[in-house]
Amino acid sequence: MVLPPAGILPIDLDWDAVDDLTRTYTLGVPEIDRQHRMLFAWCVALRKRPGQQVAEGLLAYAAGHFADEEAWAADRGIDITQHQFRHNELLARLEPLQNGVGRTTVAALVYDWLIRHIDVEDRALVARNRTA
Ligand SMILES: [Fe+2]
Q1: pTM for the whole thing?
Q2: Which stretches of the chain are DSSP H helices?
Q3: At the fourth CATH level, which superfamily is domain 15-131?
Q4: Which tens digits make up the pLDDT trace of 84-94?
């Protein structure tokens, strides 16, 4: 896996909240869990500061991570058509944040969508690898 762009996270980021999420939503695949930790970091940053800079950082990181995750699954012969569709939907949902439209509401939704995606859809993806 190639590491997605790191971006510049806020210096006062609540890493305890990030690590709580990482522990709660661990999938047991180290390379994916490591990237999810960074995705959680961007989510926590976004909730606190839902501006253009954080939205762009999250978008760049999420796009790189999604591509890596899709490659990971494809390498294992898992059909990723539906999962890829969900990733593209999530990226589209980030766009209003960059334009400053309803930032706080969209940030809260993106936070929930991404965490739900990891907990439900990514967990199912990883399980398909174990049963393949
Ligand atoms: Fe995913």
Answers
A1: 0.89
A2: 15-24, 30-48, 52-75, 81-98, 103-116, 123-131
A3: Hemerythrin-like (1.20.120.50)
A4: 999 999 888 88
